[in-house]
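User: structure tokens for Tetratricopeptide repeat protein, please.
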Amino acid sequence: MRVQILTAIYILFLAVGAFGQELDLADAYFKQGEYEKAAEYYKKLSGNKDQARLIHDNYLSTLYKLKDYDTAYKYVKALIKNNPNGIVYKADLIQIIDMSGKTAEAELEYNKLIEESAKIDAYVYELQNFFYKANKIDLAIKLLLTSREKSNNPTKFDTQLARWYLFVGRKDKMLEEVFGYGQRSKNFSYVQATIQDNIREEAEIEMLEAMLYAKIQENPNETFFNEILIWHFTQKQDFARAFIQARAIDKRNQLEGMKVFELAGMAYTSKDFKNASRMYQYVMDEYPGGDFYIAARRWLIQSKEELIKNTFPIDKADIKDLLSQYNKLISELGIGPNTMEALRNMALLHAFYLDEHDKAIEILETAIKAAKVNTKFRDQCKLDLGDIYILKNEPWESTLLYMQVEKSQKEDNLGEIAKLKNARLQYYTGQFELSKDILDILKKATTREIANDALQLSLLIQDNTGLDTSEVAMSEFAKVDLLIFQNKYDESIKSLEVLAKKYETHSLADEILWLKANTLLKVNRVEESVADLEQILKLYQFDILADDALFLLAKIKEENQDDKPKAMELYRQLLKDYPGSIYGAQSRIRFRELRGDFVN
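Assistant: Done. Predicted tokens:
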């Protein structure tokens, strides 16, 4: 008995070994494109029913290459006979009918197979994969929709359908499935990621917005689609329209202004101070007894402050009015955690806009005392003191303060800000090598804004100093930059006019024009600013400052010269000529607003 068993095992071992050798040969011929030789071996191996799966895909591909559809048909028919529930084999057989030219017959058979498979999920998954490999995505969609219908489950296979609709370019249908799944599972990240990855063209964005508005109308008691629309608008920096949706969520969920307050903070961080002001004012007006009233009041003054500081020329009467509002806030609330930032802002207004440096220092020292154990706020005030000492032409005091904060906050973003301020101070005073050493470290800063600022200043120094160029031009340029930091605009403009002529062919020429254009705008010499910007676009349209110049020129046409048609033309030009510009989102919003697309 033992001898018989061993003999059987030995024979089986030889058979398996022979099968393996022939399979290797068949696969080798297949890979080399010698399909006739491969077909001979695969045909011989196909007689082994238990090993059919090992040769199936390659054997069929070989027969397709040889256009031997009769052999393929007989081979698959035999497989189906042995595996009557083999859905994929049935699909293979229909594909053979299709490839042999009987398209109408194949279409009928595919429909029958879909009807048969749609009732059993395991069959659906198998057939779906077959259709994907065969590049028959329309049939995969039909299969899933049929299965959905038979199950009486309107959300079945929604994520799979979303993927297939994307494959065939039906992004409207894709979004319908994505929205359905997102709403049901409250999976915001899935919906957001799908939109971010796949909705980019203007027509697609308009379609997305229309669909979201329709969903909001259809589901008035559901905030999911409002939240997605808010997220979408904030991605585009379109806070005006995000505000409308945030108001709706606040009212519906009785949030007492929390949603609008949160959005206002995002608008402020994105430097959209106009809409931040509107939102903070709304919170104050609608919820005067709410938890966010005091904070909204303080941030409203700060938003107005930023608006005034970024609207040129700056009116000192507006600055004094802001100081009056801050004083009123402090007198009502007292000096404490809710008013420390107000004190700090007052100090900076006195220092930078009224030239009252000693008054500013006195207020900051009061704020530092009020901070007590709040070391971060105290160190922020120290950075402000450093800036004020630069205004007073006492750079050594500034350096000491910056270094103190850098040491105290080395694990915090504030430490990196201190480093950047110190690097800029070294640049102002002509210590370019030291400045660049600090900036090169900051290129890897944790905050993207700091890293970008460091990179820009580092490149400016690198491109205009070193072995191949004299540092004289850079030193003169840095001194003018310092004058602008000190708000000595008239003096800086005169110096820049001299530099523009003196260094007309220098690598700094476009930087000089850019700095001059911005400074002229600050003193309301708009026409001269426009001339410099147009010069940049004429002479340096392929350089790094071109899109900056074009966006600023468009803003001037819109805001200062009230030339809306020209502004629209320039925004459109920026979108066309500089598609990767950081000003793209704002240009698109401003263009559409000027065109009259939005009615709030």
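User: Anything notable?

Assistant: DSSP finds 32 helices and no strands in the chain.
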